Amino acid sequence: MNQRLRRLLATASAALCAIASLVGCSSDGTSEASAGKAARPGRFASPNPGSVNTYWIQAPEGLILVDTLRTPADARKAIAQIRETGQPVAAILLTHSHPDHVGGAGAFHEAFPEAPILASRATDKAMREDRRGFYPLARSANPRFPAELRYADRTFEDGAPLRVGGIRFKTAGFAYGESDTATVYYRPDTGDLFSGDLAGRKVTPALIEGHSCGWLGILAQLRRRFPAAGTMYPGHGTPGPARTLIDDQRRYLQRFRGLVRSAVAPDSPGGGTVTPGEQRSISTGMERVYPDHPPVADLPTIVQENIKAVARELTAEDAGQVRAVCADRTQKGAATLSAPASTEITRHRVACRPSFPPVHVLRCAPGPGADRRKVHPVPFTESGVLARRV
């Protein structure tokens, strides 16, 4: 199909969508009206466990897709909804190299062969090299993952502006956070930010690459780089206010790091090793604060793997070199104290540190002037404040 005809079809379809709210170019087969001058992006989410999103953006020259799901089977379900819009596909953008975002690229290419697949050079390199061996692992865990991947047709430098399908995007690249490399796509005319996995919504993230501190730094950069971002479209979970999603993700990571740090403290039950009891307490503590947060991966042991990865990261950290953004903090409304175990908190003549199990109890040593024959477990309230005197 030549470019002129594609523009004609896109213009006609956009006009129909504007006139007929019945179809509304919906993301999930339901009606959606246009938001302002630009219609909201469509969205398809694969089923849990490991639900992941693909988006389609209406543009003057056709649809722009963001990410391609985990498997060709999931991709074909999304393709069926995309075809219902009646619009051509102008391009496909990749946010990062994780299997659940690129496994369906071949199916999308077969369905829309004229649409180039775009990725940053860093993401394309990560896909081709697969230094972590994620793709063989994905194939062994899920037989529907493709035997061969479809790579990008065009690459660009992170940070380079893109004009795709008649729409201008700002891009930004990040390294060593949720993934080794990641690209976000920001649309200045609407304030839409397509963030990949840098901030999910009400999901249990994957921390298995062991860069939770780097991820916290990236979240701080996201807020600074895109202060006008309105809606964030995450790789997992539903879209929402950009600031809210960034802040929620930051708090999750800080809480998780605080709990794991307590478990790997020298004077914890396992020393630098997280014991099975400590692992259960961390899992229980996170589940209590974040109930009904399905995992982003179809990996039943994702929380346990997250604990192991963050434990390795924290034990390797130089305490004097930890960035301020990565410092553990007691969160308002926390279900447990998230300060490091080495931090002494003296109240009512006792010095306390987090204890496992249970997560609501601190193991306390007598403070100055207290009876040193008595060591009491001290319950804290939901806000981390001492619940009773000892």
Compact overview of the structure:
The chain has helices at residues 3-19, 72-84, 99-102, 105-111, 121-129, 134-141, 212-225, 242-263, 276-289, 302-316; strands at 42-45, 53-59, 62-66, 89-93, 117-120, 154-156, 162-164, 167-175, 181-187, 192-196, 231-234, 240-241, 345-347, 350-354, 361-366, 377-379.
Short key terms for the protein model shown above:
16 strands; alpha+beta; 390 residues; six-stranded mixed sheet; Metallo-beta-lactamase, Chain A; 2 domains; 10 helices
Output the number of helix runs.
10
CATH homologous superfamily identity of the largest domain: Ribonuclease Z/Hydroxyacylglutathione hydrolase-like
Summing up helix and strand content along with how strands pair, one would put the structural category as alpha+beta
Helices and strands, in order, run as HEEEHEHHEHHEEEEEHEEHHHEEEE
Number of domains: 2
Question: Could you characterize the architecture of this molecule?
Answer:
α7 runs antiparallel to α8 and α8 (242-263) crosses α10. β10 (192-196), α7 and β11 form a beta-alpha-beta unit. The chain has 390 residues and is an alpha+beta fold. The chain is built from ten helices and 16 strands. The longest helix has 22 residues, at 242-263. It folds into two domains: 3-197, Metallo-beta-lactamase, Chain A (4-Layer Sandwich); 258-379, no CATH class.
